[in-house]
Every structure is written in structure tokens, then in C-alpha cells.
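Quick one, T. Sequence first:
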Amino acid sequence: MAPAATQHPNLLTRREMEALTAVCDTLLPSMQLPRSVDEDDDEGLVEFYATSASMAGTPAVVGGLLCGGIKHPLMWLLRFSLWLLSTWYGTFAFCGRRSLSPEFPFFLSFAGVERRKREEVLLSWSHSSICVFRMFFRTLKYIIVLVYFTQLKEDKTNVAWKAMKYCGPDPDVSFNSGQRVPLHGALLRMDMPRDAILQAFQRAGFRAAATSSFLTVACDVAVIGSGCGGSVVAGVLAKAGHKVIVIEKGSYFPRSDLSLLEGEALSHMYECGGILPNWDLTALFLAGSTVGGGSAINWSASIRTPEHVRREWCDKLGLELFGREAYDRALDAVCDRMGVQTGLEEEGFNNMVLRKGCEALGMEPADVPRNAPPDHYCGWCHLGCRSGKKRSTVETWLADLAESGNGLILPGCSAVRILMHQKDRGRNRRRRVAKGVAVAFAFGGGTREFVVESKVTVVACGAFNTPGLLKRSGLKNPHIGRHLHVHPVVMAWGYFPPEKWPEKGKRSYEGGILTTMYSESHESGYGTLLQTPMLHPGMFATVTPWASAADFRERMTRFSRTVHVFALVRDKGSGTADGTEWVSYGMKEEDEGKLKGALEAATRVLGAAGAEEVGTQHAKGERVRVIGGGVEWLARKVRKRALRDGRTPVLSAHQMGSCRMSAEESKGAVSPSGETWEVERLYVADTSVFPTALGVNPMVTVQAIAYCTSQSILKVLQKPKQSNSV
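C-alpha cells:
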């Protein structure tokens, strides 16, 4: 299965497909085995090296992604470039003399150029001083290799897995049919006949009526988004006795339906199928898009808001909330509900390496608190937690809503706009008040729209999507969509041959994803972290440098013994977001400098831990042997190289600040209570309200802020009945 929705038909022309197939088979051709490998000894390697991208059917899937599976404002330029490569003149413009032939017709299309020269061309694009060439190479490389390494054969395996020593879905976890389903009874699918939907709402205690458009349903609180923020508000208010409707554009996957296959999870549980770039493709973002939001697919790290961040937000920005005991109680409440702890029975390969490397260099590593028990040795939680041991919002706050009997969750539904009316405040002053939300869902090949009327409306669509909804609804605050922070990340890697430490059985994709970290503080409060990611074959291939087809294949075969350590910076630089189709972000020079220092430290940590080879993900793909001073040479390279030019993949799994909280309306989009400055009874409860970048994994902080916001909403709902109540 492809990593993004495969229902998009491949509408590329024959000529575009010809060029695309040539690019695919240049990146991933059918090749001879290395001389060092005996083909009788490893059938998996034989199959992997023999199977080109076109033989695997990759070009057709990629074609569908380019025709609607991936949303990006520059997608037209990519398709136009493919068309140019199907012509001799376009190929000459892109490839220069390498496209010429000594024989008639002399000028060739890209598909007609011999593979060795096509490789040289692709490599020149990846290093080019012309940014359009670099963007073109990055885009196609990211998409093609992600598809190739997540596609499934009829037997539900991938052509590369045996060669990579990858087992596929976790073989040690199975769903127990006797387990309680947390959200049983609270889910309502809207793709049913209208009468059935009306009856379902009425059985749940909601007032619903048919209308000329479709239907209207009334509730106390409408929550848009079921992630870390929206779920807390929904759970708290439902337990307090208020009728709550949660609107979620993503789908719901009960534990029994989680395949733990990378391609399927990316397709159905992540924004844009896991391929969400900024406008110039210098950064890739990961964000959840399913019931439970990011909590359903994150890495379990549950770190409290750092004290220096709280002091900054309170003392410098005037947000007294973060200095009060009420916020302490909120942190305690959410950590208690998630069962946050630091105990661990066994540490995984990646974190063992980070811990050992730090200790060898005299750097003090720290244990990472997790919302999972000590025996949760699972490297698949970013694909959904089949065991239910990770205490995501599905297992906690949304389960509270379900158990209360006061709430419903509507998956597959998208908020179109916030509904409002004008409130007369006397002396010719009028103020808008939220009264609900217009919601759309897919039905019969088209869409239908219905209305949820509510006393309070809570937007929790995430830092990318919340600004777009507010702007579509007519809000004008200039801070909406601005001040986007992302905690930019770059990675180093180390290769540990199976016969070296740690023991042979350890593999990079197993074990708790994030259990150890190292924090480098800075006097400004804007420091860096070293942590470990979880990369399964598709994402591993996406970030792995491509220096040649042979070099790339060999790197992929070392997948299971390649450890990554990433450097993360609390960024001062910011961007803008009005939805996932248009995200702009750029690092400040100061952030880049700190990130380079942390990346240099990551290479040294890997070397000190016992890696045989170390490298970064820069496009040139250098890899150095640790013995003989290779790490020092690489460290000098890291210090000299830019990280903002697109030659090194910059990643982000934390997005925040695009509707920031402020003590004054002129400085932010929402007040300290979480209510928007412009519209009464319209609240925001996600990471977009963060006043600045946080500097650590944001799950606990966003839940704590949302918990405080829910207390503010409770006070509003407990007031005497107002004219805008339903």
C-alpha cells in the first residue's frame, strides 16, 4: 500500500509517466549484487537488488500522488518539469551535455539517456546551486523512495524487508478481543441515512432536527479536533455533565484494526500521508490526523513544561497563568491521567547508544518520562498502539467522554466555518459570539453539510489548520497564522555491525522510541536537545542520502543496525501557516548555529558509543570511519555547512504558536483563558496557542493548557442562561 491515499487516480500523461519512470529507475534500478555477497546465501538481498522501482509498480503509485494525493502549491511546477524531461529540449535544459548522443537523433529525452549518465544528472541536481533543481530532486526522491519501501506485495510484505532485516508489523503484539474498546458507544459515523443519524443523536441525548440542507444538532460544546488539546477539553466538560460533540476530520482505528504497517499508518493517520513539506521543500513535517490526533502516533515522551519557559511566559510576556498553582494542578492532573512515569525494564537499541555515547563523553543523559508502563518495549507506537499500553487521548480523555454518556465523536467530518451572531453591548457597540460550526462530510461521491449549534465552540485543529479555519470564519486578528515555531530537527547516524556492541539481537526499530535524551541549556533559554527517532523503512529511506543507486542500496541493507540521533533546537525563527497546503518556515541564523553545534555533538556521541561509521544526512552523503579521526573531520564539515539550503533534510514533529496566547489583544490571537480576542465563546485549545517555542516535546504542555482552558469554559457554562444558549 502506498504511503498516501491510493484512491487518487494516476492522471499523468504518457510522456510525463515516461519521464517519471526513468527517474524512478535511476534512483532504484535493478542491479547486480555486490561481489562480496553470495547470491545463494541471501534470497532477500537477491530480490531487493533485482527489483527496480518500475518492477515494483512504484511509478504508477507516485503518479497518483502527484495528481491529488499530495497537496502543494508548486505541484504544477513538478508536473511541468516532468513534461519537459519527456522532450529533447527540456532534457537538454535540465541535463546539459549528458543528454547528448553521438548518434542520430543526437538530442535525447531523459528516458533515452543511459542510466549511468542519468545518475550523474540526479546527483548534480541534488547539489545544484539552482534551488529549483534541488527542489525537483528532493521532491521526487522523497516520494519515490517512501512509496517503494512501504509498498506491499500480495503476501503483505515489501520487496526490501528481508534484505533490511525488517520484520514488518510487530510480531509480539496481538489484539485481545476481550479488551475493552475505549470509545465504544461514543462514535457516530455520518455516512448513514439521515433518519438513522437523527435517531443516533437523539438516543445520545442531543436535540437534532432535519433541515432543508441536511440536519442541525444542538449541544453545549462543539470541539473541533480530537488531539492532545481538544480531547482534554471534551473529556473534562463531558465528565462535568455537559453535552459535547467532537468533530474530527480523520478516521478512527480501534486497536483491532491497526495493521502496524508503515504505509497504511502514514496514509490514514498522518497529515498529507506523512508527506507534508513547507513551500520550498526545505523542511518536512509530521502531524497526526486521526481520532486521538498526535497522541495516537507520537513517541510517548511526556515532559512537563520547563521552569525557565514558564518564567518567560509569566514574567516577560505577562501570562500570569503559568506562574500560578492552577497550572501546577493542571500539570499534575494530565500527568496522572496519562500515567506518566520514568521506569523502564529494557531500553531499545537507539536509546542505549545515545546513553552510552553521552556517558563516554561526560555528558549527563536524562530519562524521558513516558505515558506508558515500564514493560512497553514497542517500536511501532508511531503507527498506532495496538496493545493500548500507550495512554493516548483515545485511552484517557476521549474514553472519559465515552464513559460519561454525554458526548459523541464524529470521525470523517471537517469544520467548514465557525457560525456567529452579533451581540449588542450597548451604546452602538456590537461583538460577535460563536454559536456553532458548519460541518462537511463525504457522502455518495460528494459532500454534505450540517450544522452543530453550541453554547461554546472550541477549535483544536492543530497549529497548521486552526489558523485557516479561523480566517475562513472571518477572524481578522493579524497574529492568526503567524509566529509558527516547529522545533527544527537534523540527524546524524552511526552504523553498528551485528558483531559489535550492543548484542547481535538488537535492532534499530525495536524498543521504546524515546526513553533517553540529553539537554544542552543556553543562557537565553533557547537551548538544544539530543533525542532518538523511530525510523521504519519508508521514513529511513526518505532521509537517507542518495549518492548513487549502489550506495543507496547498501545503506538500506544496513537499516536494522543504523542508529539515528537527532538534534532539536528551541527556535526563535518562525513561519506562517494557513493550512497544510501552504506552510512557510525558515530558520534564523542563530537557530542554525545552535543546531549545527548539536548535530556536531550527535556525531561525537555516536562515535563514542562504538559506531564503526558515522555520517549525517547531507546530500553529499559522506560517511566516515570512527577509527582514524573520521569523526573530527565530519565535525569540521558540520560546522562549516549551512542547514537552511535544503541539502540537509530538516524535519519537525512539533508545530506551535500560530495563534499565540497573549496578555493583550495587540500581541496575540487568544487571551489567557484560551478565548479568542475577537469572538466570545470561541476558544482555541491546541499547540497553536503556545506563546513561543517550547523547547521540549509538547504533549504535556498542550494538555495542561487545554485543562486550564476547560476550567475557564466551565465557568462560562455555569453562568445564568444567556441569549445565545441553545
